[in-house]
Amino acid sequence: MPSITIYTKGWCPYCSAAKELLNKKGAAFTEIDIEKKPEARAEMIQKANGRTSVPQIFIDGKHVGGCDDLYALDDRGELERLLAA
What we know:
Elements: E1 4-8, H1 13-24, E2 30-33, H2 39-47, E3 56-59, E4 62-65, H3 67-75, H4 78-84
Parallel strand pairs: 1-2
Antiparallel strand pairs: 1-3, 3-4
Helix pairs in contact: 1-3
């Protein structure tokens, strides 16, 4: 199973939806709440090539984007491949 990191905010419905999809797939992930750990926000922005919205999701260090991007990967059947790596 790959290493998955997701940057979130506690009140964000898109963050909840992304985590729900990952949980449904049985994928373990590390969640970093940028409100509880504000110093992680700058790290997230730098790693996500300037994207400031949450969630920002990384699989094995590769930026896959936000919630819509994650669901698009799933719709194309590519998420399963990434999670199986």
